[in-house]
Specification:
Number of helices of chain A: 5
Helix content of chain A: 10-25%
Distance between the termini of chain A: 21 Å
Largest interface: A-B, 23 and 23 residues
CATH topology of the largest domain in chain A: Alpha-Beta Plaits
Oligomer: homodimer
CATH class of the largest domain in chain A: Alpha Beta
């Protein structure tokens, strides 16, 4: 059977999701736990290859197994073998045709900015600290220009390798709760670093360096240098993936 | 002049506030930073000696200095010398008679319980994970019995050394936001482990093991064994101190 896992992690101590020669990754820890549980080498296939320092409440991966263990019990068995900063939130059986990366879905990310006079130690790992006051209404106005289907080439890192840079953002909502500004973006897929570049650009809007009305020009430029900087990884949290 | 600091810290990596032979403490880091800044050995006097693992958004301490640096700039200078998990939020000059522990004040603490099916890695350091569903309405009902002036001997650890165990709780509010239950307690002072024992007792109430109406009996018993267990330190955050 094919098993789908929903995985939450604090990305602070990992070199991102994807296996690589240097540094420990989330995928590696999952492969180890799944392989140990079923007594043979198993590699999970992940939905979203989050960068080093990025957190997740619900990334998705899957693997095949011939176990008789009920799929929904696998989460508990894996959590016994995982470190405390990676916790499987759900396990279930899915059709053998399911592929976490190719299946049609909507992904939601949240970028958090701590906007206050002093750093707050208890929020240092999951928010990006920004000292100067940010105008949330302007950020909201700018965010609306990003919604819909656009060529997001200006919002993708140069090492982008995908065929098309056209994506659809279903919603891009900016809200403030006390001193944390959250940018929550839902879309059918994201280019490399796209959410962090959106966040970096909206921070420039909030600071008054870019006007909300300039967003359409930035999109039209189809040039990475037209947008704002890539905001730091640790402010980003993948919220979840909804398969359609 | 006497300088008052308001200090936030993530208590995860410290052996509590107070200087001691084993382990690094918050007070020690502050003493080092203040002494280095002013070029002579200075020891701060803290308001609340939080336990190992307890966090703070606004603990208070003070020290004397003959510097000409404006008091409100001292916070910035100290933050240059402090680790990233300790950040001074405010510095100001206070009368020489001010003593952070003896001055009349109201302290507010918040105890957070993560009440859901699976652990959430991003909240593992500032919430206490509790799997079984908790009834917040019962917890609220029980909390109301704790408000007011009472002998809190049942809610103090055995090694309590203070003369009287009578304290006044101005408010004890229980609220739920998604899967986090917060117990926010404001009072004129707290006995050793008092907030953590209140939290441990309210968890028992939420789980149905203690009835809200039993709280007056527990108070009347004046016996530590009548109350619930001491909830773990890492769920506790000192919110702040208001001097009256």
């Amino acid at each position: 059977m094919r098993v789908r896992l929903t995985v939450a992690y604090d990305g602070t101590n990992y070199n991102g999701w994807q296996m690589q020669p240097n540094g420990v990754t989330v995928e590696e820890k999952l492969n180890e736990a799944v392989s140990a549980l079923f007594g043979r080498k198993i590699q999970v296939i992940g939905a979203s290859r989050t960068d080093a320092g990025v957190h997740s409440l619900g990334n998705v991966c899957c693997f095949d197994t011939d176990t008789r263990m009920p799929a929904e019990k696998i989460s508990y068995a894996l959590n016994q073998r995982l470190p405390e900063d990676i916790v499987v939130q759900d396990s279930c059986a899915v059709p053998d045709s399911f592929h976490p990366r190719y299946a049609k879905c909507r992904k939601t990310y949240e970028y958090r900015i701590l906007n206050r006079r002093f750093r707050m130690p208890t929020r240092r790992l999951d928010t990006y600290f920004y000292y100067y006051p940010l105008d949330v209404e302007r950020m909201q106005e700018a965010a609306r220009f990003l919604e819909g289907e656009h060529d997001f080439r200006s919002f993708a890192s140069a090492h982008m390798q995908t065929k098309t840079s056209v994506r659809t953002i279903c919603s891009c909502l900016v809200s403030r709760q006390e001193d944390v500004i959250a940018i929550r973006v839902t879309g059918d897929g994201f280019l490399y670093n796209m959410v962090r570049i959106i966040a970096g650009t909206l921070v420039k809007v909030g600071a008054g360096e870019i006007l909300p009305g300039q967003i359409p020009e930035i999109l039209a430029a189809a040039d990475r240098s037209a947008a704002g900087p890539t905001a730091p990884a640790h402010g980003l949290t993948m919220i979840g993936i909804e398969y359609l």
